[in-house]
Design a protein that fits this description.
By secondary structure, this protein is mainly alpha-helical. It contains 18 helices and six strands. The protein is about 40% helix and about 5% strand. Helix 14 (about 400-410) packs antiparallel against helix 16. The chain is globular. The N and C termini lie far apart (about 45 Å).
């Protein structure tokens, strides 16, 4: 079993017992942070670790606990929300359960502000942001705290990461800072530009101060630069400004200064021993014993398994939830039938379970329609491992292959850089997977979008990618079950943003609904 020495995710008694749901941004503690740190300055490590953990875990007391409110704690996790809102709503993966609003996501249709899955991500952000801010505010006035500057930089990054999803998914929110934290009056609405500018300024400041290296699973300079590059990559969508040149600047620093390399084995990035991959820049941590959650990669692995048609023990799972299948929009990139996909030499083509499954998804609620993805698994790539109930596979939020493709995209968009270098990066990714190399004339935006699907699907990028390429709404690109139609149909531009949850509107009269909802 993988040693869990990467971060100690502590559920310590001073942390939140209620949630910060509905924009109640004042946490409740048994001890004040001031008193805690005065008694034990080293307790700050546990506090910061908890903030790391909120992106992977649902709560402080095991898989049945949650930091935010919801009838099923396992549904409320940050990573589970990212997969639901980024991959299910796009062309990559469809879910068959259909419970309580999940149909709205998987068919990209009939979205409503009362859907609990929109609320879960919104509430997760406004759990993480106030908690980080409270700790930051305390540290700012604290005395002799070991490694204080390091912890401050990490917290500012984690808060910015949470805000990034507000910018991307909802386009507005409230801006909680150390200056206004604890205000008795409802905070004013912050629009997309205001959130963007704040996150940019925070990350630029942190990038100057944080170390180039760190322990696995902790933030370093490359992690900050990747989030900055992501922000700039999508700036044309977020704020109407072309910032691709800035994206190249920071992603190039990640590539040239970060000391990462492509894993020789593609699957090492998605296996239970992926902490050994030289490619992963920033993971969300998972462990079958010490960080059990239904909201981390357990959701991806178990959700894509079913003993009805698969030998789930081959992938390290003891439970198959019979939920997620890919569509031909993804595996169709490798062939137009199970036979042609199987004959494709690209390693990534082999990561679909086709036995007893149909190529076409005529009914997204029928398990055998569509191919389950076996890309994420709970087995080790470099050693023998057994099956466990919870996943030990870390989630690779940022990895080098993504940086390579971001660089190539910006070059093709005319932002500078080297076309020869871009081609080299893309071919390095393809060669690693035994796919054929391409020539410079092949390197178009359409090719890059497809290569991002081949390389990065189920990693929480797809909806954002399609929006950036103007392929999400309208009818420029149609995929199975888009708009609720079996063969897909056009959807309105409204869907480039999710609706603001009703609970958030009710909690703060300054927040307004996104247009069209």
């Amino acid at each position: 079993m993988k040693r869990y020495n990467k971060i100690i995710l502590l559920a310590i008694s001073i942390l939140l017992f209620g949630s910060c749901t509905n924009l109640d941004v004042t946490p409740r503690y048994e001890l004040t942070l001031e008193n805690l740190l005065a008694q034990d300055p080293n307790a700050v490590n546990g506090l910061v670790s908890k903030m790391y953990g909120t992106f992977a875990l649902t709560g402080p007391s095991g898989p049945g606990s949650s930091d935010i409110s919801g009838p099923d704690a396992g549904e409320t996790g940050f990573l589970r929300g990212i997969i639901n809102l980024e991959d299910f709503t796009a062309d990559a993966v469809k879910n068959r359960w259909g419970d309580d609003g999940l149909d709205q996501l998987t068919t990209t249709n009939s979205w409503t502000p009362s859907n609990k899955f929109f609320r879960y991500l919104f509430d997760r952000v406004y759990f993480t942001v106030p908690q980080c801010t409270q700790i930051l505010k305390t540290l700012n006035s604290a005395g002799n705290i070991p490694n204080k500057d390091k912890y401050v930089a990490e917290l500012r990054f984690l808060r910015s990461l949470a805000y990034f999803y507000m910018i991307d998914c909802f386009g507005k929110g409230v801006l909680v800072t150390t200056e206004n934290y604890g205000s008795l009056d409802p905070l004013p609405e912050a629009n997309r530009i205001q959130l963007f500018n704040y996150v940019e300024s925070e990350l630029l400041s942190v990038e100057q101060s944080i170390s180039l290296t760190s322990d696995y699973g902790r933030v370093n300079k490359s992690v900050v630069r990747m989030l900055l590059a992501k922000l700039y990559l999508n700036a044309e969508v977020y704020i109407g400004q072309n910032r691709y040149a800035d994206c190249i600047t920071f992603v190039n620093k990640v590539i040239t200064e970060g000391n990462y390399s492509l894993a020789p084995n593609y699957l090492l990035n998605f296996s239970a021993d992926n902490n050994l991959s030289p490619e992963i820049i920033y993971p969300l941590l998972a462990d079958s014993l010490n960080s059990q959650s239904y909201g981390n990669t357990t959701y991806i692995v178990n959700g894509s398994m079913s003993s009805d048609t698969m030998n789930i023990s081959l992938f390290g799972a003891t439970d198959g939830w019979t939920g997620h299948r890919s569509t031909k929009a993804w595996y169709g990139l490798y062939g137009d039938s199970a036979a042609t996909i199987a004959a494709n030499p690209d390693v990534r083509a082999s990561l679909f379970w086709t036995t007893q499954h149909n190529y076409d998804m005529n009914d997204y609620k029928k398990w055998k329609d569509g191919y389950p993805s076996t890309k994420f698994r709970n087995t080790s790539a470099l050693s023998v491992s057994g099956a466990t109930r919870f996943s030990s596979t870390d989630f690779p939020m940022f990895r080098l292959a993504d940086a390579y493709l971001m660089y190539a995209e910006c070059v093709v968009r005319g932002a500078g850089g080297s076309i020869g270098q871009a081609l080299q990066y893309v071919n390095a990714i393809r060669t690693r997977s035994n796919a054929s190399t391409i020539v410079q004339s092949d390197l178009s935006l359409d090719f890059i979008l497809d290569e991002r699907a081949r390389e990065l699907n189920l990693e929480g990028h797809r909806r954002t990618d399609l929006i950036r390429f103007n392929k999400f709404t309208g009818n420029a690109y149609i995929w199975p079950w888009k708009g609720g139609a079996v063969n897909g149909t056009s959807i309105p531009d409204t869907y480039k943003l999710f609706p603001i949850p009703l609970t958030a509107l009710g909690a703060n009269p300054n927040i307004t609904q996104n247009p069209g909802y």
